[in-house]
Design a protein that fits this description.
Elements (H helix, E strand, L loop, with lengths): L15 E2 L12 E2 L4 E3 L6 E3 L4 E2 L4 H5 L6 E6 L2 E7 L3 H33 L13 E2 L2 E4 L2 E2 L2 H30 L1 E6 L4 E7 L2 E7 L6 E6 L14 E6 L3 E4 L5 H15 L15
Antiparallel strand pairs: 1-5, 2-3, 3-4, 6-7, 7-11, 8-9, 9-10, 11-12, 12-13, 14-15, 15-16
Helix pairs in contact: 2-3
Length: 277
Amino acid sequence: MLTRYDPPRTVDTHNARCPQCDARIPPESINITEGVGLCSGCGALTRLSQLNLSEKSMDEILARTPAGCSMRVEGSRVMITGSLRSWGGFLGATAMCLFWNGIVSMFVSLALAGLWANLIAPLPNGFPVVGGLQQGRPIVNGKPMQLEDTLFLCVFLTPFATVGAAILAAMAMNLAGKIVAVIDTDSATVSTGAFGLKWTRRFDPNEVTAVLLQRSSLESNTSTGRLTGRLIEIHADRTVKFGTLLAEERLLWMHAALRKVLLLEGATRADTISLQS
């Protein structure tokens, strides 16, 4: 039963699928004005925001496991993994990192030198710093750098250093990043990270009502399929969104695998090991 009105939005009416039975919903069964789609297979009336957007059915997608993806069972737990590795993305992020952080690092070193000279002790002659030294402090505008100049530079550099850190994180994610969903009997997590650092979100697998493939705020602007403009959205005791960095094929497979595991009827989650065959 619909509990609220879903405002009109742009929908790919040719790729809309029912979140209940996975049947394709034809364009004539989608009412943009009312914000709903009617499935002729199961009769479900679904808000546009909850329609799955996929050209292939779940069974078609699960028939082939992409490189970098896997699903395995450990006791009562099911682990579904999707790799974020992309050599093209890694090389692009590396080039950007060297360019951006190479410039920012010069000013960061100037700010650190100014903090040291003004708060701890004068810098020794010959210390490598942009613009040189005067009275043991970096030279700014032709005079020794004062504490207020240093603090202003630190504040000014903060957003630039943040962008540099984000580019560095993108390098790590493209080299060794992965998304791991762990579903147990009464608990579940989705973790995204690389090199031991990860961001984990928890939800109750017994309260899952939908596993959707949705549009994200990112739009694809490459021909590599790296940014799909889509994400996986799990509706449970809380909404968990992830997967915008997954390549298209991996995103579709992980969505299908999670849907198969979390929306089971009449089977245990461990039975889904058969999907790997």
